[in-house]
Amino acid sequence: MADQNVPPRRPRDDRGWAATPHTTPVGYGDPTPYGYDAPLPDPGGYPIAADPRTSSPYAGHPRGPRWVGPEGLGRTAPARTGGRGLPDLDDDDEPRGGVGRRRAIAVLGGTAAVVAGGAALAMSPQVRGLFEDDVVGDATGTTVTDGTAARPSGQQPSTVRTYTEQNESYMGSRAGAALKKNAPAGGRTFPGPAAAAAATRVTVKTVLAKDPVLHLARRATFGPTPALVAEIRRMGIDPWIRQQLEPDTIAPSPAELKLADLPTLKLSVQQLRDQRDQLNERGAQPERELVDATVARQIWSKRQLFEVMVDFWNDFLHVAAEFDGGEVYRTSFDRDVVRAHALGSYPEMLIAANKHPALLLYLNQNDSRADAVNENLARENLELYSVGVDGGYTEKDVRQAALLQTGRGVEDGKYVFRADRHYVGKVKILGFSHANNSKDPEKADAAIDSYITYIALHPSTARYVAQSLATRFVSDTPPKSLVDRLAKTYTVNKGRIKPLLMALFSSSEFWAAVGQKVRRPMEYLVGTYRALGVSPEASPKHDNGDNRRTPFARGLRQISDKLRELGQFPMGQPTPDGYPDVYVAWTSAGAMVNGWNEAGELVAGYRTQFTYVKPERLVVKPPATAGAYVDALATRLVHQKLTAREKSLILGIAGVAASAKVDATFDGAVTAVARAILASPQHHLR
């Protein structure tokens, strides 16, 4: 029987997914990553920074390029308050006779993209030209999940797509082609990461400093901090990576200890079921506390590479945090599947996932039986979680896998194998065959595990994981040479993850790819908290008011709410394809402007649930002249000086010359100057 303690499911569409409710997070109204309109440039060539208090700038605009942004198609953007003395970027005032803030910061942020020849891709009219005639792959065909209709059993799923392969389809655009021209073309493996870093010459065009320590800090963490950079330099590249690959040896940070403020994190599935009413009365929402905790770990954990890999697997083996039943099961999935295996073995992770109530309920496996097969889990195991849509399987393989997996389900909050629902009969799937001639739970379960192991170690899976990992760590268009070597490493090591990462960090392609990734909205905001040195302790002036939840818990909820506005939060994609991991998918003026405004809030220290470094104290001994102060502040926040043009724009925002004398507050403009630096490409790139 179905788990009686899980709320009734919403009506399903023809794939079995729950119909999207009106409370869907902003930016997720469309189940595919497509369907959004591009921002319209104003007459001066800069995108219109929509006033979120009125309406979306996209409403009524003819369908154009497929841009992903926080507002969605024709949606009203969420309301937000002003910057309490720090104007929103919509307010294009002229401070002290200088350059308008919105326009100047748009120019800074507009050069954040990575393209060939150093051309800007994000915020100029030329960008629109790159996308005007673009045709991006889209989903076609239909899928039957109830076992009643005929299927094109011999047809390749790549011709009857339920999902496009997101990253490749985005990068198939002309913009993607431009990005590819500036990516490293090939390379080789070295004995270790430090040797690879020392021997690799960076030839790509980028505004980032070609410093291997900074490059490692940007890619293997959620953002460099002065302490982190100093730690890598002190330890050395190889010892630091080795330590990060052993996260249990790294002491928890004070913020991680404060996660005890989130009462549901350590509760078992049974405890969450038993305590549901009490938790509701206290306002505790397990699925949201999981998101909050994940954000906290990304910002403050010293186990940064581990957290990056947790985020990677949460996109690759994706289960949405807020599916029907997520409040009971998603925390356990995070703890017992993703985190338990994030640096372990992918085949073991996939086996564990396929026996976890979260995945079984999310993909409707609990409803599947021999006489009414539901194909959702079988399909995604092949299409998304292993070989990929072009991995060589057919619709017949999906059907055979779905038959084999019948019997697996959830009862009383636990995984169960129901022999009476299991199909008995020989199956053949993508070269795997099994007699499958027993309803004995132990034997039938073992047969399914054998199949899951087979697809997890399939050559197509090796390549799919390698491609995804190289896309995350190296480039939106990773070199084939690297993908080939990583796929071989995956196969030789039977899907173990640490050797795969060591091979990645020991490749010249990794170290040559400086500036070839752009932060997605979540990475931008998390990186901003890290750059500003925000402390998890409450500000002395904080008035908690509602004492049911601590300032730390409430502050984390504010961050995750802001991430919802930006269009990306941990485990937030409602469909099982996870978030796209390429820049072209996130080119949204609305998200950029919203992020910059939030950076201004953080610089000013308005979120009193945390403690902030006062902007005039970010630089310990501020220089006396404006130009030198901008250099020092940029070095503190983005670990390098800005270009002459960017520096000139920022001085224009402050309305002073480089030689002008300023005090520690930059004569009252330090908050605006710091925010402008956080809008620069040096902060957007990773």
TrEMBL record:
<dbReference type="Pfam" id="PF08811">
    <property type="entry name" value="DUF1800"/>
</dbReference>
<keyword id="KW-0812">Transmembrane</keyword>
<protein>
    <submittedName>
        <fullName>DUF1800 domain-containing protein</fullName>
    </submittedName>
</protein>
<feature type="region of interest" description="Disordered">
    <location>
        <begin position="1"/>
        <end position="98"/>
    </location>
</feature>
<keyword id="KW-0472">Membrane</keyword>
<feature type="region of interest" description="Disordered">
    <location>
        <begin position="142"/>
        <end position="161"/>
    </location>
</feature>
<keyword id="KW-1133">Transmembrane helix</keyword>
<feature type="transmembrane region" description="Helical">
    <location>
        <begin position="104"/>
        <end position="123"/>
    </location>
</feature>
<dbReference type="InterPro" id="IPR014917">
    <property type="entry name" value="DUF1800"/>
</dbReference>
